[in-house]
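Reading a protein record of the kind used here takes only a little practice. The record below shows the convention in full.

——
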Amino acid sequence: MPLFDFRCRSCGSEFEVLVRASDLPVCPSCKSAKLEQLPSMFTVSSLEITKARVRTAKKERRRSRAYRDKVMADREVKHHD
């Protein structure tokens, strides 16, 4: 089921909805079927963007692991005192 963006011609509200081929969408605010389909935004993706996201995720994981290790070390020190 594709996701489409619409603007209601009756009340002006904008919304997105999953639409099957057999369905006629209606405005969730005023229930009108007088809708204008808006151009859908697309996602730009490239190999470099994907690599940058992976690098960022790995850095965050290392930081969280380092934080967890520090907390555990602090607990051990407190436990032995």
Q: What stands out?
A: Residues 47-80 form the longest helix (34 residues). The longest strand covers residues 3-8. DSSP finds one helix and three strands in the chain.
